[in-house]
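Please check this record.
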Amino acid sequence: MAEARAAPSTLLVTRNFPPLVGGMEKVNQHLLAALAEAGPVALSGPQGAAAHAAAGAQVLESPLRPLPRFLLGCAWRGWRLARRRPPSLVLAGSGLTAPVAWILARLSGARPAVYLHGLDIIAPSALYQAAWLPFIRRCGLVLVNSANTRRLATEAGVPSGRIFILHPGTGMPVLDPAAGEAFRRERGFGAQPLLLSVGRLTRRKGLAEFVAGALPAIVAARPDTLLLVIGGEAADALHGASGNEQARIEAVAREAGVAGALRFLGRCDEATLFAAYQAADCHVFPVLDTPGDVEGFGMVALESAAHGLPTVAFAVGGIPDAVDPARSGALLPAGDYQGFAREVLRFLQPGARAGFAEASRAFAAGMEWARFGERLRERIRQP
């Protein structure tokens, strides 16, 4: 009788993992969970990661700061995990840990892989470009989150035959209009038009520029419009953090005469975020087209679609992979604030959201997390 073949094991090495908050962190959490369905998994990650890891995962944590200490700790603890259970695949959760993954893979006879998010290819650091990119190029499997990230990886010298697009996913919540009605009622919003922005406050997200360039026209046409901003400052980000971004947005709003149309709700729990998605009329995603800083995918646009909420966005970076203009919203050329305002006002018309809800959810369902896991496991089984 043939001997039973051992299930492949995976070691994930990453800084981007909960309890840190963000799209990259969410992707890595789902990467680990999806890989756990294929075989044993281990994680060398930041402090607090064990509480958020897949059931049964072996986890060793390293202090988050300073960065060199984290990278050394991640490598050492990754090696300890590899000694306990030799992996068949060592996966870096971003370009930052690609050198760690490649070295651990060589030491343990495993296949090195990396998941790239966009900015981790073009990060504007001479040291990073010289020391990190060679390890990314050497990885046998390079997962990327969008067609734009694939293009950036190819331009950076990654062999195209090693690159595989694996879009981030989304959950598919059961819609509850009553939650949206309660959200409005409890905050005194009534029937006012509500625009929603969700995500960490960084300059790349373009909220200040949207407030200056598009919100005045929207408010002129619909004076009772409110822009709800959910999210906090990007305190743990390695790139793109800009100090007090909320203060900058507020200053721009005062100068543009629309300060009364802004409401900052800060970081919210999942129940409040769900209710906000239900209550809003339109999600705005005015990301800037900034050299050296890129939006790799735009998970929040996909999550909005899953909630039946249309998104108006600029077609920059990987966002065109996350918004389908025929089904889930509208895409505008970068910097077209007049067009952006026009599209937002279209979605503020009575019944506009309801007309997009079914199509938006159908688009999102094609990239839900279960499908993400299936595509990941299918790809790693290939040589």
Residues 67-84 form the longest helix (18 residues). Residues 1-5 have pLDDT under 50 and may be disordered. The first strand starts at residue 10 and ends at 13.
